[in-house]
């Protein structure tokens, strides 16, 4: 963050934006990301001696060009520019500026990147864990099983409360992006793992004399488990299963979708399970399916050259 008197008038606008975003209930993760992005915009504005936020589109494009010159990858540039567009739109909507100079601001071209996923064999190796003997091992088994059984985002999984478990229907009530609620089923084996974890969870709270918690997944202090902790647990599980490294928890979501598609599930049904607002987002998995099909073809066709 830029310090000094020069930044004060510009910083007041950013601070007011953050306060309104907080009042709207944006997630802590989104708030942190916005702060980091707007710190970069403020730093640029102070160095370039902007007199305020009432600037020209050309001036704002100078900020976008600087991001590219600094060597940031296209995805990072796109995220920062998205935050800048949101900020300038807010300035205009709240009549702090007379025109929105960022309305025509475009993101850099993104390289097409298919999501990473595990093969069915790798998924089985990851989930083939010894029977749980205590709270940590039961929690890890349940985390992995539910991620692969339901295709939830990690943030959705750790956000689950006990009241979101519809165990009679083997269904999870999930609060997804945009606070949209959806129901996601899970299979019998996942239900058995979940039931075992709930038993260990109750015993853990009683043994540690911790107060009841609404959160499904707890840390060692009885608080809600964080996405960061889940990523660390998954890394350890991948190493123990000798599955290739550099696979994020999100890869289990991708694996869930890819394996269902490869086994014939309708794409729109997968869209509903994943909570995608647009079918085009889900259609990325058709490319993954076609890649697997091409590899199988090359191995099987008599005239294919290996």
UniProtKB/TrEMBL annotation:
PROSITE patterns assigned to the protein according to its UniProt record, in alphabetical order: CB, TYR_RECOMBINASE
Active-site residues from the entry: 153, 177, 250, 253, 276, 285
Coiled coil: none
Domain Tyr recombinase, chain residue ranges per copy: 113-298
Pfam families found in the cross-reference section: Phage_int_SAM_1, Phage_integrase
Residue ranges of domain Core-binding (CB) in the record: 8-92
UniProt function note: Site-specific tyrosine recombinase, which acts by catalyzing the cutting and rejoining of the recombining DNA molecules. The XerC-XerD complex is essential to convert dimers of the bacterial chromosome into monomers to permit their segregation at cell division. It also contributes to the segregational stability of plasmids.
Record text on subunit structure and interactions: Forms a cyclic heterotetrameric complex composed of two molecules of XerC and two molecules of XerD.
Entry-linked PANTHER family: PHAGE INTEGRASE-RELATED, TYROSINE RECOMBINASE XERC
Family in the record: Belongs to the 'phage' integrase family. XerC subfamily.
Protein name in UniProt: Tyrosine recombinase XerC
């Amino acid at each position: 963050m830029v310090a000094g008197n020069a930044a004060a008038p510009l910083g007041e606008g950013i601070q007011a934006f953050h306060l309104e975003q907080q009042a709207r209930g944006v997630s802590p993760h989104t708030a942190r990301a916005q702060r980091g992005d707007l710190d970069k915009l403020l730093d640029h504005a102070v160095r370039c001696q902007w007199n305020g936020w009432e600037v020209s589109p050309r001036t704002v494009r100078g900020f976008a060009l600087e991001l590219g010159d600094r060597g940031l990858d296209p995805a990072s540039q796109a995220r920062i520019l998205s935050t800048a567009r949101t900020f300038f739109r807010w300035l205009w909507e709240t009549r702090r500026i007379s025109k929105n100079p960022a309305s025509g601001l475009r993101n850099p071209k993104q390289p097409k990147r298919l999501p990473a996923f595990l093969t069915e064999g790798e998924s089985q190796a990851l989930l083939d864990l010894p029977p749980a003997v205590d709270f940590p091992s039961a929690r890890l088994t349940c985390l992995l099983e539910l991620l692969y059984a339901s295709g939830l985002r990690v943030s959705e999984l750790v956000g689950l409360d006990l009241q979101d478990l519809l165990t009679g229907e083997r269904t999870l009530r999930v609060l997804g992006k945009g606070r949209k609620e959806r129901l996601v089923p899970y299979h019998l084996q996942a239900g058995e793992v979940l039931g075992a974890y709930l038993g260990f969870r109750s015993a853990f709270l009683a043994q540690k004399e911790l107060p009841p918690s609404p959160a499904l997944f707890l840390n060692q202090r009885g608080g809600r488990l964080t996405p960061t902790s889940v990523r660390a647990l998954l890394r350890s599980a991948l190493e123990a299963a000798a599955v290739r490294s550099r696979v994020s928890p999100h890869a289990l979501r991708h694996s869930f979708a890819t394996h269902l598609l490869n086994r014939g599930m309708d794409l729109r049904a997968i869209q509903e399970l994943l909570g995608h607002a647009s079918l085009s987002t889900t259609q990325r998995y058709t490319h993954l399916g076609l890649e697997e099909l091409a590899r199988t073809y090359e191995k099987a066709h008599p005239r294919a050259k290996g």
